[in-house]
């Protein structure tokens, strides 16, 4: 009687061994994130030390550099990384400032950290709406749509004056330094620390995203949108994501400004602010968060230099108000003509020349 099993068939009573449990280690935090966290910690320590060396007015300027840097960094992700030109970034700062003011006035017991998170959420929701509406727009059409946003949104404070305070805005009081630090730390110092801590946390997130998959997708869309779509990148969704993150950064920057000044007024978020942020980004350098830092420094200290120059020349108030703009614009033209990649590009080229020597 012939057996039905062939010689090469496995025996039916043999059970296949179970796969051994995986011994692969759990993924750790990426070294890039650790590097960014270490750099942020060093920067925060530097800011804390610097506030002890300068006076109260200079401490306010240091804090202003911080929240302007955050706003420009968010714009950098949108313009420098994805190539979407936005002229309405000041409108998202308006949203963050007024969200902070309304929360403090109507819910004063909400902690500051929760207020900051709330402003980011509100800004991101606004970014979803605006980003979805403008996802198919390009070039001047996108710039025009965001320009309308920058002009129209602050006007809501005049239309809903009962809620938003009209042209005078909203005035509120926020807590300064803790009582335990009375006599050791001033309110201006404490606010500068809080603002820079918030800014550096947001910058760590931005830097990590820029080095990851999202950053690569944004750069691919910026270089060639059609090729990115053929490569399987969801162009529309990625562009909306960039708009949402940028709006969240702008809203958080507006919240930091409101926290520093204790007021939110529509005149602080005019079209001039949006244009200044974009000009500062070009001046500082597209494509790097360092460009946001140089741009914020230029916005704060070139304006101060222009005012001091006007006072030195004894110019009338009508002329003196325009001197900082002329000063900033002239420097912007010179920098862009000499170094198209801005201040950061010039410094990178200079450091490369020094290394080769």
The main sheet orders its strands as 1-2
Total of helices: 16
In terms of DSSP E residues, the strand content is under 5%
Total beta strands? 2
- Please compute the radius of gyration using only Cα atoms: 26 Å
By oligomeric state, this entry counts as single chain
- How far apart the termini lie comes to 90 Å
* Biggest sheet layout: 2 strands, antiparallel
> Please, what is the average pLDDT?
84
Shape: globular
Instruction: Output the helix-strand order.
Output: HHHHHHHEHHHHEHHHHH
Helix content: over 70%
Low-confidence region ranges: 1-8, 10-16, 19-23, 25-29
| SSE class | mainly alpha
The total domain count is: 2
Biased composition (Basic and acidic residues): 1-10
GO cellular component, one term: plasma membrane
Transmembrane segments: 32-53, 65-83, 113-134, 141-160, 190-209, 277-302, 322-347
Organism: Thermobifida fusca TM51
Structure report:
The structure is a single chain. By secondary structure, the protein is mainly α. It has two domains: 31-269, no CATH class; 270-357, no CATH class. 71% of the residues lie in helices and 1% in strands. The chain is built from 16 helices and two strands. A two-stranded antiparallel sheet has the order 1-2. Helix 1 (31-51) packs antiparallel against helix 8 (187-211), helix 4 packs antiparallel against helix 11 and helix 12 (271-284) runs parallel beside helix 15.
């Amino acid at each position: 009687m012939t057996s039905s099993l062939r010689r090469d068939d496995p025996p039916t009573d043999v059970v296949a061994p179970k796969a051994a449990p995986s011994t692969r280690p759990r993924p750790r935090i990426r070294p890039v994130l650790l590097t960014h966290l270490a750099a942020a910690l060093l920067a925060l320590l530097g800011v804390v030390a610097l506030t002890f060396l300068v006076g109260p007015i200079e401490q306010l300027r240091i804090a202003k550099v911080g929240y302007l840097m955050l706003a420009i960094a968010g714009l950098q992700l949108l313009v420098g990384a994805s190539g979407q030109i936005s002229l309405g970034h000041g409108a998202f700062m308006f949203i963050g400032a007024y969200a902070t003011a309304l929360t403090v006035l109507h819910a004063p017991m909400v902690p500051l950290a929760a207020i900051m998170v709330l402003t980011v959420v509100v800004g991101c929701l606004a970014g979803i709406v605006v980003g979805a509406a403008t996802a198919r727009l390009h070039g001047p059409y996108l710039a025009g749509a965001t320009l309308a946003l920058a002009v129209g949104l602050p006007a809501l404070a005049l239309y809903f004056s009962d809620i938003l305070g009209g042209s005078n805005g909203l005035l509120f009081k926020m807590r300064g330094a803790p009582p335990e630090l009375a006599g050791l730390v001033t309110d201006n110092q404490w606010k500068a620390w809080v603002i820079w801590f918030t800014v550096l946390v947001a910058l760590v997130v931005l830097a990590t995203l820029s080095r990851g998959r999202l950053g690569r997708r944004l750069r691919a869309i910026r270089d060639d949108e059609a090729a990115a779509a053929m490569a399987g990148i969801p162009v529309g969704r990625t562009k909306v994501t960039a708009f949402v993150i940028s709006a969240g950064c702008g809203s958080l920057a507006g919240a930091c400004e409101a926290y520093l000044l204790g007021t939110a007024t529509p005149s602080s978020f005019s079209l001039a602010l949006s244009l200044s942020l974009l000009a500062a980004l070009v001046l500082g350098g597209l494509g790097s968060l360092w460009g946001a830092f140089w741009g914020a420094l230029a916005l704060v200290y070139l304006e101060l230099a222009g005012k001091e120059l006007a006072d030195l020349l004894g110019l009338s108030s009508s002329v003196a108000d325009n001197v900082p703009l002329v000063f900033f614009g002239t420097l912007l033209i010179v920098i862009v003509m000499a170094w198209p990649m801005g201040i950061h590009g010039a410094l990178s080229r200079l450091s490369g020349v020094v290394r080769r020597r």
